[in-house]
Automatic annotation (TrEMBL):
Protein known as: NAD(P)-dependent oxidoreductase
Tree of life domain: Bacteria
Keyword Oxidoreductase: yes
InterPro entries: DPD_II, FAD/NAD-bd_sf, FAD/NAD-binding_dom, GltD-like, Helical_ferredxn
Protein's organism: Plastorhodobacter daqingensis
Keyword Iron-sulfur: yes
Occurrences of domain FAD/NAD(P)-binding (ranges): 151-457
Keywords: 4Fe-4S, Iron, Iron-sulfur, Metal-binding, Oxidoreductase
Pfam families for the chain: Fer4_20, Pyr_redox_2
Residues annotated as domain Dihydroprymidine dehydrogenase: 26-136
Amino acid sequence: MAQQRMLQFVTIGRETPEKRPAPVRTGDFDEIYREFANAKAAEQAARCSQCGVPYCQSHCPLHNNIPDWLKLTAEGRLREAYQVSQATNTFPEICGRICPQDRLCEGNCVIEQSGHGTVTIGAIEKYINDTAWEEGWVEPIRPLSERPESVGIIGAGPGGLAAADVLRRAGVQVTVYDRYDRAGGLMTYGIPGFKLEKPVVMRRVEQLRDGGVNFVANCNVGEDISFNAIRGQHDAVLIATGVYKGRELTDPGAEATGIVRALDYLTASNRQSFGDDVPEFDSGELNAAGKRVVVIGGGDTAMDCVRTAIRQGATSVKCLYRRDRANMPGSQRETQNAEEEGVEFVWLSAPGGFMGNPVEGVMVQKMRLGAPDASGRQSPEVIPGADYVEGADLVIKALGFEPEDLPTLWGVPELEVTRWGTIKADFRSHATSIPGVYAAGDIVRGASLVVWAIRDGREAAAAMLDYLGQSAQVAAE
C-alpha cells in the first residue's frame, strides 16, 4: 500500500467511534462504543502531527510509542502497528478501553493544544489490538528456554498479571495466588462490562495459563496459606494485592440496611453477568432494580456504580459529590456518558446522615468551595441551613479505597509500610524491606489506574529477573 501522508489534522477533523444511543445501550452491559472501520482508523491515525517531542508518549505511564503505531496504522501496516503497541504494554486492548486518555495521552496531544482536536489514540489502540486477536497475530507465550527459578505472585490484578507475563516469557516458573475464583482483579469484578467486556480479560488470562502460569484461585493469604509458606516455596515473591478496603461513612444512620460498598455492588453485578449464583443480587440487596439510588463519590468507581444502576432498572440515580464538576476526580468522558444515560449529578453536596432502617433517605448538606487545601484544591465547606432530604432506597458508598493491614493479616511485622498503610518499596526496583520480596501496583502507590499497575508490574518483573540472576550466580560460585 502506498504510504499515506501524516499531518492530516488541518484538513481532517477529530472523530471518535460511534456510541450506541443511550436508550439502546442502557438495556445491556455491552461496550458502548462501536469499533472503528479500517479506513476510519487509518484516516484518524493520519491526523497525528509526528511531533519531535511526543507529549502523548511522555504522559503515558508505559511510554507507549504512540506516534510510531499511529503512523503504521495510517500506512495500512496494521500488524507492525500491533507489534510496536504490544512491545511496551502487556494489555494494550484493555488500556485502549479503560485508560482515561483525556487525562493522559490525548489530553497532552500537541494538536489538541493548538485547537485542532486531539488524535483519538485510545480508540485506535483498541482497534489495532482487537484486530490482532481476530487475525491470529497474538502469539502464545513460549519461552525459548525454561529456568529453574520460581516466583510467587500474590494478586491476579493488572500488576500481578503484567509481572507474570514478563517473568514467564523469560522462562521463570510462575504461580499466581488470588482471593477470587477468577483472575483479573478489578478488571474482572470491579469494572463493568460496558467499559470492559469480560471476554477481553479472560482471553489474556487464558493466554497466561496456556503459557505455563499456574493460578491458585480462592486463596486468601493469611488464612488458606501463610505468607511465609509462599516465601518458602519460591525464590522471590511479588505482592500485587491492590487496595480493596473501602472507606467508610461515619454519619448518623450509616449502618442502616440498604447502604452498601461500591465494590460489593459492582462485584455482584459482574458475577451476575458471568452467570454465577449471586444470592445478594437475587434478594435485591445488591440490585438497583426499581429503587431510588444515591451514589456518594465523584471518582471513576462512582461513575461505574451510577451507570450500572441505570442498567439494572433503577427508578432514579443521583450522584452526590462534595465539589463541583471542574474538581471531580473522575473522567469527564465518563460523566458525560452517565448524564446521557439519565444520571443526575448533584454537585457541591455531601451526606450529613441517613434516615430509616432500611434506609429511606439521605440528609444532604449543601457545600461551597473555600480556601485551597494542602493539595491545592479548594476545600468544601458546609453552607449552614441549606440541608435537605433526598429519598433513597439504595445508597452506594464510592469513597475510595485504602490498603489492608498486610503486616498484621499476614503475620510479617518486618514488612515495612508507609504512614498511609501502603507497602514501602523502592520506586525503581519495587523491592520491599524483605529480601527477595517485591511489591507493585495500588498496594504501593494507593488506589490508581490500571495502566500504572501494568507499568509497576513490568518494572518489578525486570528487577526480579536481575535478582534471580544474581542469586543464581552466587549459588554457582
